[in-house]
Request: fold
Amino acid sequence: MKTHGAVLYGRGQDWQIEEIELDPPKELEVLVRWEAAGLCHSDEHLRGSDMGSQEHEAESKEATEAPPSGLFPILGGHEGGGVVLEVGPGVRSVEVGDHVAASFFPICGHCTMCITGHSNLCDMGATTMLAGQISDGTMRYHLKGKDLNVMASVGTFAEHAVVHEASLVKVDNDLPLDVVALVSCGVTTGWGSAVYRADIKPGDTVVVVGVGGVGMNAVQGAAMVGAKNIVAVDLVEFKQKSALDFGATHTAGSIEEAIPLVRELTRGAMANAVILVPSTMYGHLMEGALTMTGKNGTCVVTGMAPQGQKEASINLFELAMWQKQVRGVVFGAANPRFDIPNLLALYKSGQLKLEELITRSYPLDQINQGYQDMLDGVNIRGVLTMV
Ligand SMILES: [Zn+2]
Ligand SMILES: [Zn+2]
Reply:
């Protein structure tokens, strides 16, 4: 069948809306009609950073100057909510008419990580940026007669997709699909960073650096657990103000501004948890973040750094003597098949704000405007709506 999607031809270029030829689903695959897709920063990293390159596997400096790998052209999008139109042979987890969330990491259900409750780290995730379908490596997407790569094996910036059932999570049919799309990545990533990875306790002081579509949910998570002080740090005043509606108790315009505030709030003890969700993570941000992290405190790195970023300013003496922890996290250390429906249930019961995260919706052909608005800081989250 023919469908339309937003394709990136190379770093630094704009998204192009193209007609794509899509093959029918094969064994364990599902044809989905995406109705909404979140404009997450990770797809922008594909455009503006070095994500997905294989160059860094080589240790030499010249390697970073090498021409891009076979990643491009690529169909973008990894946050999505849609409807199952057709199932291939052997599919058991969904049926025609089901509503689904995309899971940018597939969940096999039986590898070591999956069976020990860490399915966000499923071994199948290794395939997520590789060309071809998860099932057998062959291609279902074709553009102008050539094979087309697909972001995270889900390609949600398109009207339709053929995805492995391991990349889909069934959700209730009465939920708005734009809300489902947000929970499929950004919401869960932020919320889990606070609740699971920072392990916040009632009465804690928490700092969230960067309160966009992901960080805002770290604020919500911290508030839900009962943190006493929640300091939202963002350059953009509109996001600082919005954070107060999501549970922040204080705001600051920069890490430098936040340090004396945290010192004052805690009588010098500093924060129990600092969660880093800047638009791009850089090593130099660790210095201020660890200054704000108190004894036995945790600094969670959620934001995505350039793939080649290897150095960070960390005072190793204080790290040991104050017994601080630095913890990385992906997808909020959450289990997609449990946490996506669970967060949507909290939304339904009025305990999690999701609609309020969506500042603006765009049709597919306005995707470049949507990303420009994200970069300009005017959106908490922009969403593409396909129908
Ligand atoms: Zn995302
Ligand atoms: Zn697995």
